[in-house]
Structure formats: C-alpha cells, structure tokens
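Step 1: inspect the first sequence and its tokens.
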Amino acid sequence: MSKLRIAFVIPTMDQGGAEKQLALLAIGLPKDQFDVHVFLLTRDGPRSEMLRSNDVPVTVIGKRFKLDPSALFRLKRCLQSFQPDIVHTWLFAANSFGRTAAWLSKTPTIIGSERCVDPWKRWYQFAIDRWLAKRSQAITTNSQGIVEFYAQHGMDRDLFRVIPNGIASRQSESIDRQQACQRLGIAEDRRIVLAVGRLWPQKRYRDLVWAAEMISAVDPLMTLVIIGDGPQKYELLRFRDDVTSRQAVTFVGHREDVEQLLPHAEVFWNGSEYEGQSNSIIEAMQAGLPVIASDIAGNRDLIKDQVTGKLVPLGDRAALAQATLELLRSPDQAALLGKQASRFIEDHFTIEQLIQRHATLYQELCTDAGS
C-alpha cells in the first residue's frame, strides 16, 4: 500500500499549543505509512526547527494581510504540486484559506481543526466556518467543550473527532530547589505558585495578581511566578505595581526550562476565560502539581474537581485565593491531588495516543473516500 500524503496547513510555527501539537504529530506519524508536508500560511516560527530536524518539509506561503488572495492561489498551487490525499488545517486563518485551497485543488479528503472555544469570532467568521464544514470530511478538536461551542453556532457535531492533546515523557535533567529559585530570582524560602501562558486578556492575569495579593496578606512567603510574554506585558507590570509587591508577584518572561521549574512549585494556576485544552495545565499535572483552574469547558476535560485538581468559578479571585491557601496548609491533600493528576495524564494524554488516533482517522477517511 502506498503512503498517504498529508498536507498540514497552519498560520505559523510559533510557540503556541496548537503549533506544538501539530509538530509532535507531523514528526511522529510513521514514515512508512505517511508522507507529511507542513505549509505555513503566514510566516515561519521557532517550532519549524523541530520539523526540519526530523526531515519534515516546511513551506512558507507568506500571506501578507488578512484577505490576501495571492496567498490563497499560492497555497492552491503548492497543494496541486504536492497532490495530498488529505489536507488537515489548524486554526481559523489556515482553516479558511487552507480548506478553500484544498477544495479548489480537488483534494480528496479535507479536515479542519478547532483548537479552542472562540468567543471573539464575529457572525461572518462563524458563517465561513459553517460553509467550509460542509466541504470537510471531519473536524478534529481536543475538547468536548469545543464541540458543544461550535454545535451551538450551527455546525454538525457529528463532523467532530475529539483527540486529546499529547505530551511527551518528562526528559529534562532535574534541578534542585536552589537552582530553581536562582533562575527565577526569588529567595529559597518562598512558596511558589506558578502560572504559565501568553500575556493577553484571555488568560485573565489581573485576577491572578489580585488573588496573589489576597494570599500575601495571610501568607507573606507566597510568590506568584508568571512565566510567559505577550502584548499585555507592560500593562500587567504596571497593574502589579499598583496593587501588590514584586515579592508577591513576579513576571519572568518566556522560558525554555518550565519542565525543570514545575516540580519546585506548590500549586499551579490557570484563570483563563476560555481554553481549548491547555498544554500548560497538562504539563503541570504530568509533573504532579496540584492545579487550581477556572471552571470552564476546556479545563473540565482535564480537572475533576477535588480529584485531579480544583476548579473555581471564573473570575472569583477570593475563591482562587481560598482554594490555594487550603492546599498550602494541607500538603498531604496537595500531594494526593498532584499524584492523581499525574496518573490521569499518563493514562490519557500520551503522544503515542495522539499519533495513533490521528493515523486511524486518516486511514478511515481515505478508505471512505476511495470506496
């Protein structure tokens, strides 16, 4: 049997969660069964190095502005040259341009991918989604909450295939507490609460800063360490300085050593307004950290309240502070939640499962297309 030719289309190869999952999938699909090519609609990014170093070709289409018709036709020509059996697109811009180009080039099987609940979309964007869904054989996603969101906006829930994110086994060399605190620029006696993610409104970091200020009034040794960068950086720094101290909340920017730092935290926070399936939560759970997160659709897929972590009402800063103080005062409960979280991730969120579920879907859809 000849190899299936898979064209992945995504806007960039930046450091986001969707880009990481695509890279893991593209690299991991068995090379004796699949011929994979990645097309970047807008520009290149740091995760491309993972692909190229594993002999996965990457082509940058170079879309210059939001409605760049030349990018659509360049992508169409590239697909006609590659002649894929499947075009699998990720994220809104690539879902729109990529599926249209695949349809125009008569690709036999077209798959979209929705990675997040997207309340920012306007009516016309949902109209585009619905039109392209009718020309797709499937839409992959990582969360049942996303299925429900798009079903409420008129898309056929039967099109969706839920495939949870995959995470690699922990591979970094461990570091000791002193090293971790030195890297973060905090004293060794601090009790660390970690939050990791892009600094932008979806993540609601203002809520986390306020909750940290509440805790610091009771436990002055607690420090919230926020790892990440983004467009809200300077606004959040000013906000932090207005409401609390740098000892209570510290911003350390984007870091490549998060895996090594996680074991040295007491608690992990996520206060997002919406998520698909948070890679940062999965990584924290894998490391055995108790996670306290906002009670939203994507987080509920990962956290069973009081079993694999704690859920608190969205935006409830007092509830977040109270739940955290309970764990800081009860290390046995925190350790149990972390242990159960780690086991849950090990059982359900491996890279091997991610790859096998996609491979099975691709084979199934191509068999249906050929029958």
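Step 2: inspect the second sequence and its tokens, then contrast the two.
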Amino acid sequence: MRIRKYDFDYGRRALLEKTAKGAAAAGIFAPVWPMIANASDVSKAYPDELMSIEMFTKGKIKTGDTISASNVEDAKELLDPFTYNQIKNQGRLIKIRPSERDLTKMYPKKWLEVSIKNKGQAVFGPDGNVYTKDGKTWIGGAPFPELKTGAEALANMSLCWGKHDYCGHAIRERSVSPAGDVDYKYEFIKVELQITNRLDGTIFQNKKDLLRAHTFAFAAPAAQEGTSFLDIWHYDQRKFNDLYGYLPDFRRVRQFPTNQRFEPLIPGVVWLLTDPWGAGDPMLTWGNFKIVERRPMLGPFQGNWSGSKPNWDHPTHGGKKGTQFFNAEWEMVPEMLVVDFEPTGYPRAPVSKKRAWIDARTGNYFNCGRYDRAGNPWVNFELGSGQMIDGNTVWKDNEGNVEWSWHYVHIYDVQTGRISLIEYKPTVTGGHKSELFADPEVIYNKYCTQEAIQRLGKA
C-alpha cells in the first residue's frame, strides 16, 4: 500500500490544473500509456482516492453497492448530468463493480498491438485530416493513444469506431414511451467495414479516398423489413457522407440529403445518424473541439455483456413498468475527459453542441450528449463496452483472444422522456449474425453497395 504523501483533494486539484494548462496526457504521478503498453497496473498513475469510490465518497458508497435515488447525491460528482437525472427521477439503478486496473482488457488485442506499433506516426495535415508523417492515410490503430487535445480524442473515435476491420452487429431495439410501453420494436444488422485505417495493413480494393462503409439493414417488423441504408464515409473528413436508402414501398435506391443525419431513419426511435459511437458524422464537419474538464467519474467499461443468457437477453428495470433501462455495472474511472464540439458544417443543425465523456487513459467514450439550439440537454447516447465475458461464457476472436465490443446502448430523450434500448444479439431475423471477423470481399458484396442494399430489400 502506498504511504499517503498528498492530502485527500490532491487528485482533483491536479486534474483541474491539467485542464487549465492543456496538452497533458493521461496520468498524474506517471504517464498512463507506457503502463498500458507494458500491461502494468495503471493505479500507480493516480492517487488512491481517484481509484476507489469508497475513498472518494468517504465510505458512503463502495464496490458492490447500487446507486439509486436514495444515495445518488453521494455520487453526483461522479456522474454525467443525463445519468444523474435518470437515477434521481426515473428509477434507474447502477451497480458498482471493481475498477479495472489492467487496461489491456479495454481493447481488442489486435487493436492494441497495432496502436503500440504505430504510436507516434500520426499527424494532423494542413487540411485537418489525420495522416502518417510521410503523408499517407492512417495505417491502423489509435492515431493518438496519448490524448492531449479534444481534436485528438475525436480523431481516435472517428477513424475506426469498433476497433476492428469489420463489425457485424445483430441488433434488437425497443423504443419505450414515458408511460413505460414498448411501442416500437426493430431487428436489424449494423455493418461497419473499414476501407482505410485497417488493422491488417491493407487498403480495401485500393479505395484510399474512402474510410468506411456503414450499413443498416432492417429485418423486422414486417412494415420495415427490407429497408436498408448505406452510409459511405470519405477519408477526407471535410466531406459529407454519401447516404443511400432502399425503401421497399418505392422499390428503388434513392440518395438522401445531408440533413438526414439530424432526422430519425425510422419511426419511433430517438437516435439519429449523427449519434453512433459519439462520432456519427465526419469529424471535420464539426469543430471547436475543446477539453472543458478532466475529472474522476463512473462509467460502464466492463461487465455488461449478456452472453450467457438465452439470446443474450439483457434485463431491464426502472420507469413506470420496469422497461426503461438495462441493468448495468459501472466502475470508477480516475480521469475522464469532458469534450465539447460544435456542428460547424451544418448551418441548419438542430444541435448547438455535443458533449462527450471519454476515458482519458484509453480514449474509449461511454456517453455523448446532444444539446438543442438553445443549449438545453436533449438526447444522450450511452454505450457500455468491454471484454465479451459473462461468467464462464467467453467470446474469442479467430486467434483465441478474448473479444471486445460494445455491450448495450441507451439513447434517452430528456425532453420527451422516450428512450431507445439497443441490445447486441447473436442473430436476428433473416439470418444476420453478430461477428467481428469476416472476409471483407464477401461483406462488401453482401452489405456495402447500392446493389447490395437493393438485394437485401428484395430478399
């Protein structure tokens, strides 16, 4: 045990000082990234009270406890305002788990290896995009593993959302009314195929001007079956995406305007294309990136995959009928970045800014809030992530390593009280399955062209 050399509030003061000075990587006593690269215990980088909720709250809350309306004031300083409101007023509960000290568990193994290999080679070019020092498109992994600025944090989030060359997410979504009624249900596959910034060191089909292909293909209910959207990302983050949709009623593919990013794709949901992964739009169509705060917080970074449950079902609670929120475990994070950014490329955007909460140690975000034009809280997009372990059930990659991905998503509209709940599923209607490795040519031809989404709609 470390002999205490600092008073209780030293850690918080140190984080405030880092925010004021700017351009400081994660860690107080020592930089965090070398510890991650060497699989060391990162608690050596922080004072004890920033690593323990029991110490931080002076014994009022400890590991294993549940935060509820009865004790949320004791944890208010550790919560984002959206989550605080959900616990205080909507009956949400959060269980506290031990903090993970081996941060290699917060990445897919291959992603971490490539990030270590390529560290120090990323720069922002004159056009604001990320390149290697010799001017090539980024070569894989986190371009800025030691976050020092808000722009670096958003670049890490934007260039490869899922930290894999391919992510196929089979999804069930429920949209819940303020009365607790599940009034919309959907099943779909969400595909993310990296074209550049691939971990295998290649550029898919030599399309170096593109970043990724991103597809939603809806399989249920019958009214939405066959509806598909293809979102093509350019590598140049100043360019707006090419968005195509196949609507069975019209039996054709049509191209959608840029402002479709701020409108729901389907009825009843509260999420927009701008929301996924906290960085749903090209990075440079947003701007004024700023770290406004560094602070200890709670976040859902491990322990929320339901892989041992039938169909990976995730229990719910809260609200008027117990349907409002997923059960979730959160843990203490000693240094969280609070990053603001504004929609500089969308003059008619209904959003004044977004605010993202990002683990300074890993670059993993867990929450991003959307604020309306008047600056009032509107919608937050909360994502639980971590290793795919649930008791004795473990999802491993094709090399036998424990997989990592998101576990659940809450999208809560604080102004209307509606919430969309998104669950990871092994499969959904139509035979679409969750997988984190596949032949890119097969995936591209099946999901990632205009012809593909038309075929999906007619299947």
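Step 3: confirm your contrast with the notes below.
The CA atoms of residues 23 and 148 lie 4 Å apart. The longest strand covers residues 329-342.
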